[in-house]
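thread: overnight batch results

M.L. [08:02]
morning all. the overnight job finished for the chain we discussed friday. pasting input first so we're all looking at the same thing
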Amino acid sequence: MNTKTPLRILAFLTLTLLLTACPQERDPQEIALADLESRFSAILALAQSRSCENPADWSYTAYGSKACGGPQGYLAYPLTIDVDRFLALVERHRQAENQYNIDFNITSTCDLPAEPTRVDCADQLPVLGYD
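M.L. [08:03]
and the structure it wrote out:
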């Protein structure tokens, strides 16, 4: 066996260890998007935590932030949850999405979603109603 072979093996193993031991950097946009998705999942979990039996027990709110301005859409939520906490989560998500749009130069359509006028119940699910 060549005397250089053990050195080559050692160098290869060291390089392999260094490459696999160092955490790979994640793309900042990927991280920010994952954060937005996590925030919205928490919002949806609260909004969908109750069945819709009586429309009077429900309301709706705008959520998200389009790059052109305005909300991404509207979401029904039960009034039987901690509404202040829920709306604070929605607002923090809106602010985070607005910052994401700015930081990563996001573009979007400039149309605005129609604002609902009520919440109806169908098959125990909330349905946004429009007049």
